[in-house]
Amino acid sequence: MTLMPNDTRRGFLALIGAGLAVAARPAWALDTGEARSLIEQSLAEVYAVINSGQPAPQMYRAFEAIFARYADVEIIARSALGPAARQAGAAEFAAYRQAFQGYIGRKYGKRFREFIGSKIEVTGAKPVKSFFAVTSVAYLKGRSPMEVEWHVSDKSGESRYFNIIIEGVNMLASERAEIGAMLARRKGDLAALTADLQQAG
After folding, report:
1. I need a labelling partner for 190 at 20 to 30 A (CA). Which of 38, 59, 91, 197 fits?
2. 20 in a domain, yes or no?
C-alpha cells in the first residue's frame, strides 16, 4: 500500500476528525451499531462542507464549528498539552482550550480542498475496553485505499470521538508532539503558547 505524504495524512486525520461524533446521548445508549451509524452520519456533514463551494475562510470556520460540536475537545486539548494541563489554572486552561480549538480548525481546514471527490466507507465497529473502535476504508483520488480507525466513547456523557489512527499515525500522539514542541519553545509559558496558537494554523 502506498504511503501518503505527511501533510496529506495530517489533513486526512483532520477531515475525519472534524465530524466523527454525535450529539449528546445517555452514557448507556452507545453500542456497536450506534457507533457505526454515528460515524456515517457525521461524515455526511463533513463532506457537505467540503463540497459546498464556500470560500476558504468560511470553510475553515465551518470545520472549526464541527470540531467544537462533535469532538471531545477537552480530552484532546488536555492530551496535547500533556503534564502542563494538570498544572494550569481553570481560566488559563480554558483560554488555551479555546485557542487550541481555533488552531485545529485553521491548521487542517487549509488542507481539506484536496479531499474533494474522496469517500470513506465504514466497514465495522467493535467494543475495545471502554470505547468503540470503528473501522473504515478511505479512497482518495490517485492513492491506494487506506484503513482508518477512530475511537468513540460516551464516558463524558456525550458520544464523541477522541482519537483517530490512519496508516499508523495517531492523532493524539501527533498533536501532543507538536504542542509540546511549541510549549518548549516558550519555556513552559502556557499563556505565551495560547497567544501563539491564536495566530497559528
Report:
1. 59
2. yes
Q: Scanning the structure block, which residue is given the C-alpha cell 492523532?
A: 171
Q: What is the Cα–Cα distance from 51 to 113, expressed in whole angstroms?
A: 9
Q: Which domain range does residue 155 map to?
A: 6-199
What CATH number should be reported for the domain holding residue 128? Answer: 3.10.450.710
Give the model confidence (pLDDT) of 24-73 as tens digits.
Answer: 344 445 889 888 887 887 788 888 888 888 888 888 888 888 888 878 88
Sign of CA dihedral 22, 26, 28, 33: negative
The H-or-E segment that residue 192 falls in is helix 190-199
Please choose, from the candidates 131, 130, 141, 151, the residue with its C-alpha nearest in 3D space to the C-alpha of residue 13: 151
Q: Residue 1: inside a domain, yes or no?
A: no
- Give tens-digit pLDDT for 16-38: 555 543 333 444 458 898 888 87
User: Is 130 part of a structural domain of the chain?
Assistant: yes
Question: pTM here?
Answer: 0.78
